[in-house]
Write a structure and sequence with these properties.
Elements: E1 7-13, E2 26-31, H1 37-45, E3 63-68, E4 73-76, H2 87-101, E5 107-115, H3 122-131, E6 136-141, H4 148-161, E7 165-168, H5 177-195
Parallel strand pairs: 2-4, 2-5, 5-6, 6-7
Antiparallel strand pairs: 1-3, 3-4
Helix pairs in contact: 1-5
Amino acid sequence: MKPFSHASFVASAGRPGDMPPPGPPEVAFAGRSNVGKSSAINSIVGRKRLAYTSKTPGRTQTINFYELADGSRLVDLPGYGYARVPQPLRAQWGQLVGAYLRSGRALVGVVVVMDARHPLTPLDRQLLEWLGGVRVLLLLAKADKLTRAEQAATLKKVGALAHNQMRLFSSLTRQGVEECRRLLEDWLGQAAGIKNPR
């Protein structure tokens, strides 16, 4: 069974103690507020409203967990970098995400969603440094806003600055959706093979 053939909401955690117990392999999604993380998750799992989307930046204030058909999970981390959110709340989000990354979970990789028109902002780079040795996929979202020439130039620019796997992506035109889904299936399959060797 393909893991993305069925996905369901598991839990929403506003505090470290609210997170479900670690165990299954997890792929986390991170990115700036309103960059399209929830839309990317919905596109990858083939559902319109599994992950809640909003036009209001900073709406996702919790870590949201979704279970896939094989028991693995997708994890939607709170968006970062929205100036109108009060500083104490921004600090709380940072502590929450930090607690998630330090909690000994079976994290097989992080999908860092960036706006293809404005990739690798200072906050994006800070996140990549923070993730350290974690496997990362750079998802260049809203690629439909760029021409073919601009897309090629963006790939070249990002590739020169960040040594991570990357994909152009659009929830609107579905560019890169199948490619991204296959890659994440490989990540989760590798993790399951390591965890449960035959």
